[in-house]
Amino acid sequence: MYAPYATLPDRSRGRQVPEEESSFRSPYQRDRDRIIHASAFRRLKHKTQVFVEHEGDNYRTRLTHSIEVGQVGRTIAGALGLNQELTEAVALAHDLGHTPFGHTGEDALHEMMAPYGGFDHNAQAIRIVTALEKHYAEFDGLNLTWETLEAIAKHNGPVLGELPWALAACNAQLDLELHTHASAEAQVAALSDDIAYNNHDLHDGLRAGLFSDDDICALPIIGPAYAEVDAKYPGLDVSRRRHEALRRVFGVMVGDVIDTARQKLMASGAQSVEEVRALDHAVVSFSPAIWAQLKEIRAFLFARMYRAPSVMEVRARVSKVVKALFACYLAQPMAMPERWHEDLRAAKNDQDRARIVSDYIAGMTDRFALQLYEQLDLEA
Asked: DSSP characters for 32-44?
């Protein structure tokens, strides 16, 4: 049973290329399935968040992260009476545009693309699902519904000011109403992303030895969670104690978003998804108290994990890899695989060619980028 403010599948604005809809899947289930079967989704298996892909088998990848975000999103959406299929589709698609080596790779590619319009991973996700996936007979991209495209484009809120070029191109054709908030389902996907990475970055940082259980016990939310586990399970081994504590932290975040969103949705008086979009504020968020505590946790992770000397050393190395690959292929674009040659021949200027090179590099996995860098002998 959907809440009044949910996105209803039978009221979708449809797809750019009209298709006969499935008799046994909703439009958003179909979107989700197309995303799962996309080449870009499979490549997330070997794209990482903080640690480079070969550093350990247990660290999260973009693929496992996306699955976790989808799971959290479905839970929250179900509790709020929202459309779980749309939420899941957005959650699974939200990282499709990421480069190899996480945000470090994105920063490096954005720097190289600065003369040609820059690079933005959210806009690249839209480019992938509207143009770069080329498997279907009647269209490029995945021909997703308007609602799913809107949600991918602005799940982090309205997109104002100068648009990233890849998003501007899509918006010119579809008008995603970028000045408004997205659906509540998209907002749930955004908060689910925050919950998932807060949780798994703690796990991964502990596993990497960048900080200890005692270190994070000094932090809000986390300290009380460990204390609760110690009181209930005295003498529990380190691994189980850690897991039990962090799953409680996870539960605090999920429960807080559900409770806060319920209050905001009720207070808003929204009776349709259109009314949710028209509001001047997001309806899915953490409470002020939990948000303040999470900011303290994020500050700790920034100092002890994202800017740890060992991580910074790897960041410098992989940034060099991305920049060298871009320079190499910008100078010799036809050295790219043959499937890119048709687009290169159609390119009208240097900007077009640079954007094609950017598409190629952004799609690489960590391991492929490293292998190619070595094969091409780009070490300066």
From this structure: HHHHHTSHHHHHG
Helices (H), the chain: 27-36, 39-43, 62-80, 84-93, 102-113, 121-127, 146-154, 165-174, 184-207, 213-216, 222-232, 238-268, 273-278, 288-301, 309-331, 341-346, 350-362, 366-375
Q: How far apart are CA 360 and CA 332, in angstroms?
A: 13
On whether both 113 and 136 belong to a single domain, the answer is yes
Number of compact structural domains in the chain:
3
- Is the CB of residue 88 less than 8 Å from the CB of residue 215? no
pLDDT of res. 54 = 46
Q: Are 221 and 322 in a shared domain?
A: no
The DSSP code for 114 is G
Q: Are residues 32 and 170 in the same domain?
A: yes
CA atoms within 13 A on the CB side of 305: 25
Task: Tell me the pLDDT tens digit for each residue of 65-92.
Answer: 999 999 999 999 999 999 999 999 999 9
Is 4 part of any domain? no
pTM, to two decimals:
0.95
CA 234/CA 56 separation, integer angstroms = 30
Same domain, 302 and 316: no
Q: Do residues 215 and 108 both lie within one domain?
A: no
Q: Count of CB atoms within 10 A of residue 213's CB?
A: 15
CB contact at 8 A, 142 and 156: no
Domain identity same for 335 and 278 = no
Measured distance CA(380)–CA(376) in Å, rounded: 11
Q: Which two tokens stand for residue 234?
A: 């005295």
Residue 3, exposed/middle/buried by CB under 10 A (0-12, 13-18, 19+)?
middle
- The radius of gyration of the chain from alpha carbons, rounded to an integer in Å, stands at 21
- Kindly report which listed range (57-66, 218-227, 304-313, 370-379) carries the lowest average pLDDT score: 57-66
In DSSP notation, 327-338 reads HHHHH-GGGS-G
pLDDT tens-digit profile of 305-337? 989 898 888 889 999 999 999 999 999 999 999
List the domain range (segments joined by +) for residue 52: 9-18+25-174
Say if CB 85 and CB 296 are below 8 A apart: no
